[in-house]
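Reopening this one. Same input as before:
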Amino acid sequence: MKVDVYNQKGEVAGSLALPKEIFGLEFNADLVHQIAVSLSANKRQISAHAKIRSEVRGGGRKPWRQKGTGRARHGSIRSPLWKGGGITHGPRNDRIFGKDIPKKMRRKALLMVLSQKAKDNQLVVLDKIESEKGKTKEMAAVLFKLPCEKATTLIALPDYDKKLFMAARNINKISIEDARNLNVLDLLNHKYLLVTKDSIKTIEKTFIKNSEVGS
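Same output, byte for byte:
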């Protein structure tokens, strides 16, 4: 599969044959959904926490004697029946929502989503991307000349570049990440993926060649 390569002026500067190992896979919706759900669960932060009867204060002695008062029997004011007592079935911050997914499955799903982006013409390739001063207006001027204009776009850089991160972080609907840190959830949350030719080499090195060494 060949795609057009743009320059920073928004002009087509050539074409590029995409590696079929990355951009030539068939899409498996069930696998991609499973990975997306697991990544969402692993990112989940739990802050709500209700105290149970063993965590609230008080209740060191029996409120009143068992018999003879005419009132219902109680053993502790920590009971959920009492105001200020423990909470029954409340939210807890010790619950574990994380899911462990094999690395090969995560890698396969990522390549499937990349392949689908290419097939749907949602992959934009630049010859290079630079920012002299790290200003937002510089990055915005480049993006507004490309097919991903005004759409949610994930920019994948070949390496960390502080100027580019600073230039892109305040643009609405734009996210920026190192190519080696790409994941299924980020790709699905953005319509377009913007990469450079060097970014594709980084993806190939990270997710194809390294996997061959580890297998």
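So the earlier flakiness isn't reproducible anymore. For the record, The chain has a mean pLDDT of 91.
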